[in-house]
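Handout, page 2. Input:
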Amino acid sequence: FFNAGGAFIQQPPNRTHPDFPGELPYSGMAGFSPGAGARIEALFYDAIGLEVQLIRAWDQVQSKYTINGVDVGFKIKQPAWHVPIHLQAGIPGSVMRAYVFGGVEIVVPGKVDFPQPAGVPWTMNASGDTWHMWSFGVGFEPKLNIANVDLRFPIQLRGAASTPYSSFATDRATYDITEDGALVGMEYDLRWQYYASVNIGLSWFFP
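Output:
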């Protein structure tokens, strides 16, 4: 199936540091994350189900800082494996099955692509470890019923959230601050706060 997703991080409300005057830099971020994958789904009477997906997503977010009155944009790319594991509760039908689902989504990130933005006076980096989100949504499976073969055209709308998610900038990034209060570097700890996606594909069901 094809996965069209989006990653989002809100600006943390608390951006203070005892060694830094003013507010620490940390802007909200968002970006489009295309991907593709496969899934295995087991159904009981076409009503209760368990599914496991494996998605290769090319996650990315972008944002900007305003430095000396000039907007400086930047983009962070991080390919990742997304592994949603969901329980389903659905309404069987001869033409279409509709269902709701919920579960956990494990994210295994790859190498970060984050060039140093021109015009930013401090060093910027990003890294991330394996983490998880809670995911939920609705799905629809129109049945094609071709030559007595149970082929379906699954459409899934999925949302996910990382909870808890700190409201402090110092929990979301590591800041390198000198003794005289100058910021010389920062490194983002990449974990998406929210994630939304649409999956569209083709499935074959058999007894």
